[in-house]
């Protein structure tokens, strides 16, 4: 029997009344996406740091292309939020500032950060960048530009199936090494969109954005290149994880 969890089927789309997940290349999908389609883009692209030895996180990311395409497919009053690594932040800020007038740093402070680096401070946050135009929507609830919450481990983190061969190295035990906290993504969805809006994530991983959007009454459209992650995301959307 063929194990569909480990194959790539580019072009496959899983659809529901709440939204779609496309197993596709993010750049190809964006090139063929109609203009002004989404009210918000919330995404977590590769950091280019080779986390957990993953090849997809070692390749050079065309941030200039992504910034242009984000502006093109976003509605004029929409919001973009991008998680990024420290050294990427300047590139994201420079490229997105070509198209948006308002830019603001964001830091997700992890309350459950683990590990110890002798003689050094322990990093316990990740950077993000929120950009928009002058008339963009922002939730009525007052929010600080950081979230000191959101567990990064525990029951929420997806694990491989018992019969799957998976690495036991640090950072590779979970199904996806950079799965974001649902609590943090729900906060972003609430702040940057209204009920009924469509939110886009071209690097959806295990689909946390889709779960948050469905729970909060938004529609979602997501793209994920890895077919195994596509399946995991769809199971979460259907409540099977």
UniProtKB/TrEMBL annotation:
Top-level class of the enzyme under EC nomenclature: transferase
Domain of life assignment: Bacteria
EC number(s) given by UniProt: 2.1.1.72
Limits of the DNA methylase N-4/N-6 domain: 40-229
Basic and acidic residues bias spans: 153-175
PROSITE patterns found in the cross-reference section: N6_MTASE
Start and end residues of each stretch annotated as Disordered: 151-175
Keywords on record: Methyltransferase, S-adenosyl-L-methionine, Transferase
GO biological process, one term: methylation
One GO molecular-function entry: DNA binding
Catalytic activities: a 2'-deoxyadenosine in DNA + S-adenosyl-L-methionine = an N(6)-methyl-2'-deoxyadenosine in DNA + S-adenosyl-L-homocysteine + H(+)
Family: Belongs to the N(4)/N(6)-methyltransferase family.
The protein's name: site-specific DNA-methyltransferase (adenine-specific)
